[in-house]
Give the backbone structure.
Amino acid sequence: MSARVVVWVLLSGLVSAAQAGHGLINSFAGIEWLPEAGLLPVDFGWRVDCWAEKFEVSQADSAEDAVGLLHAHAMERLAEAVLLVKRGQAGAAGPALEAYAGLLAETAARIDKLDEPGRTSARLAFAARLLEARYIVSTEYPDLPREHRKVLGPAMEAAQGAYQAQRAPLSRRNQESLFFREEEVRWSWEQGLAADAQGL
């Protein structure tokens, strides 16, 4: 067998593993995890903190900076919801999850108003961050309390919907650049849903 054939076989195996979402290649290696949750919806002052964040966005130096702040705040809301689920307080996670979905929608609306080429760059970056958020939740999901974790399902759906909306206008090349991460998220979330189905 020639060296070229051996290399081709090895590379084919690696690609197949990556496409399976659970092989040798982890396309999310080194990503920044959820931020540390600060105030929670159950805490006094949480809504004031959210209003302060809105003011911060309104004072951003540029539209691009505002987009970055909005998504950072969205990740904070997601972190709050996950922490509440870990504590067995899924019923208290509702406001954080609602705010998360609202921030995703506002981020998308702001991106739509950007001029090119900034709009495409922001769209691609936002799509990548949405995949990261879904990967993080799907990775943590099986270890969360079984009777509480399903509350995170709507957040995963909101992130998926926002992702599809950002992905659709991208060029084929940009869409293809997201492929391996899409597959890894799909596989990871399927494992979480399978755990629910099996009562694990």
